[in-house]
Design brief:
This is Lipoprotein. Keywords: Signal. The protein is an all-alpha fold and 74 residues long. The protein has a domain of 38 residues. Helix content is 43%, strand content 0%. It is built from three helices and no strands. The longest helix is centred in the first third of the chain and has 14 residues.
Length: 74
């Protein structure tokens, strides 16, 4: 019985050694501007097109205004 408990404790202790390192995915490019987009059409909202910084900023203003609780109150 003691051996089973010791074996279980060792197994739990070694389980933490198997964690994979958490790194950025290869598709995530933090060195590019958010207005450049992802290249996936499903993520494009409104009139914004990838690479159009002015349209990106306008879309962000519209989105922020839609989430403003002070504007929602009558």
């Amino acid at each position: 019985m003691k051996h089973a408990i010791l074996l279980a404790a060792c197994a739990f202790a070694l389980a933490a050694c198997g964690d994979k390192p958490q790194t950025l995915r290869s598709g995530n490019r933090p060195d590019t501007s958010p207005s450049q987009g992802t290249g996936v059409a499903a993520f494009q909202a409104g009139t914004w097109k990838a690479g159009d910084k002015a349209a990106w900023e306008q879309q962000m203003k519209v989105r922020a205004a839609g989430q403003n609780d002070y504007v929602k109150v009558n």
